[in-house]
Amino acid sequence: MHYNRRHFIETLTASSAVLLTHSATAFAPKALPISSNQYAWITFYNRDKRDWNADLDASLVEYVKSGLTAYEPSFSNVEEVKRLAPLLKKHNLTMPSAYVGSVLHDPTEGKRSIEMALAIAEAAQPLGLKILVSNPSPLKWGSSDIKNDSQLIEQAKNLEFLGSELRKRGVTLAYHTHDVELRAGAREFHHMLQNTDPKNVGFCLDVHWVYRGAGNSQVALFDVVKMYGKRVVELHIRQSVGNVWGETFGEGDINYPRLVRELQALKVKPLLVLEQCLESQSPNTVKAVEAHQRDLAYAKQVFAGWL
Asked: Is 69 helix (H, G, I), strand (E, B) or coil?
């Protein structure tokens, strides 16, 4: 089921000394409330055969019932930003971050993606946008195909350029991954972070995708934290039990208290974004509002030192 998210997004060693000299605190906003990505809500709505976007006003009524006061939407164009703007005000929601898809491994598509991402950022910045999260698209969502060296070089170049342009506008680019970037020795993942400037490209650590992409490995997850932890400007937060995504964020396969300790030791304070999505094997015992109420309550315990 995780490829559903990807189709949705499509439409809308230690690191070097240089990395260690740039603290992610330069990127991340301070004392912002816990947020949630809209896609988690979409998965709950889809399970109930509902459409999150059919009546976004009504959907956000449920969103705020959960106790959440910050929101991470996904945008594919500027019109979607304009549509959301009055609803944020109506529901008293902040929008410190947003998610945009991008195709950066191809020169022509890369130019288009960069232009659209910059236009979205400029439209969203007056709404409070500080971090723009982007996951460069794979060759084909759901495919086992991976990018060749020339495509990786092109993608890193475009990622760096997008980050530098966003930085000029006062917005931080946060590089995001799913599992495909961890294939073939994680060559795509490492090339993006080894060949971009930490001043221009931060890291949105989607904790469970790194865990799953590395074969459900906490060893690999915490090695990633050792290598790139100082670049983390945002966390996407999800838990699994028996390697199946749970309905709520709680204890499970990933040791989140340890993650907090290790990032705090690096003096990192990321934006916290719940993304407790459902997949086909997930339990079906609780509705979206109650699930996110539970997520928020547990997150406030685990991440208390950052709130």
From this structure: coil
Q: Give the number of domains in the chain.
A: 1
Q: Which of 279, 293, 238, 242 is nearest to 47 (CA)?
A: 279
What SS3 class is residue 267?
A: coil
Which of 221, 211, 293 lies closest to 245, judged by CA?
Answer: 211
Which pLDDT belongs to residue 30? 57
Q: What is the CATH number of the domain that holds 238?
A: 3.20.20.150
CA 61 – CA 58 distance, rounded (Å): 5
- Read off the tokens for 189: 């993942």
Mind listing the pLDDT tens digit for each residue in 167-226? 999 999 999 999 999 999 999 999 999 999 999 999 999 999 999 999 999 999 999 999
Task: Determine the straight-line distance between the first and last CA of the chain, rounded to whole angstroms.
Answer: 32
Tell me the C-alpha distance between 159 and 167, whole Å.
12
Distance, in Å, from the CA atom of 260 to the CA atom of 89, rounded to the nearest integer, reads 32
Query: Which residue range forms the structural domain that includes residue 179?
Result: 2-306
Which residues touch 198 (CB under 8 Å, ≥6 apart)?
A: 18, 19, 22, 230, 231
Following DSSP, what letter does each residue of 198-216 receive, concatenated? TTTEEEEEEHHHHHHHTTS
pLDDT band at residue 24, thresholds of 50, 70 and 90? very low
